[in-house]
Amino acid sequence: MFLALEVDGAGAHPAAWRFSGKPPAVVLNPAHLRDVVRAAEAGGFTFVTFADSPLPPSAGNDIAGRLEAGGRAAYVSTLTEQIGLAPTIHTTTTEPFHVAAQLASLDHASHGRAAWLVGAERGAALATVGATTAPDGEAAEVVELVRQLWDSWEDDAVIKDVTTGRYLDPDKVHHVDFQGGTFSVKGPLITPRPPQGQPVVLAPDTLDVGADVVLVEGETPADITKRALAARKTGEPLVFAELDVVLDAAESATERLARLDQAAPWPVNRLRHTGSAHELAQLLNRLGEVVDGVRLHPAALSVDLPLLNDWVLPAIPITAPRETLRETLGFPRPANRFATTRRGVHARAV
């Protein structure tokens, strides 16, 4: 089984910062991020995700800022060794070329641990780029283009031939000539092919983008099961469930959640566990019968993450990390589409 962890801010609960025992601005401190991700790595999580949005993560008295997700992932890439890093990047507010370059760079910096949590922010967030609507199907086009851009350099394009002074073989760097419904890109990417060939792509099951890992939500285990089975019928490679977590600590989980909710309500949008670490481990093992992994959203990282590491993860059969995130998740390294095409043309010419 695989376990992922969302590490945005002080926790998933909008009032988590109020009860973290630290100054509110600490969530913008790189040391906080470093400590959280290192703790997740030590605990055995497969990968961490970094939430992001063009708009602030909350409103009213709890309005807060956040550092950009790609920057956060890049910062911890050289401070960790095994854990996967998956920033959220929105297709509706970020140029596809920059998405591809940023994630390829992250994969190089982390030596093959990069992933992309695909977002497709709509509504008021689109005003940040001067838009009012996002065309249907645009997210799928962006993901396909990004995959092509990752392939635009063949694996052996960089030759570094000192004798001839040639750094790369131009015949192994390709234009993609992509024409989408609302954009076009020539390519090639400015970054050599990522170590994984293509970083892992994650997306909600509500986005039909051809992801490697789909995330399914539901307020009950039965809801999760239904959506997981539907995802498998469409051929999704891996399915992860989304789960909020509030664990018993110095006070009961129920009392702690009530105190947090009194400060700022936390709407129930997905399955939520409120109770003991032992009961959570049992729930995860049951979910493991219908999904390949679970992404946890702890109410307050300062309280819930240590409990997860000490009592929950040791009770779960988590897949051990391998050299790259793709390998850990059981995916083969994808062949380069342009290299395959070029070899085919050469073979026909011979």
Automatic annotation (TrEMBL):
Gene3D superfamilies: Luciferase-like domain. Keywords: Flavoprotein, FMN, Monooxygenase, Oxidoreductase. The keyword Transmembrane helix does not apply. InterPro entries: Diverse_substr_monoxygenases (IPR051260), Luciferase-like_dom (IPR011251), Luciferase-like_sf (IPR036661). The keyword Flavoprotein applies. GO terms for molecular function: monooxygenase activity; oxidoreductase activity, acting on paired donors, with incorporation or reduction of molecular oxygen. Residues 28-204 form the Luciferase-like domain. It holds the Pfam family Bac_luciferase. This is LLM class flavin-dependent oxidoreductase.
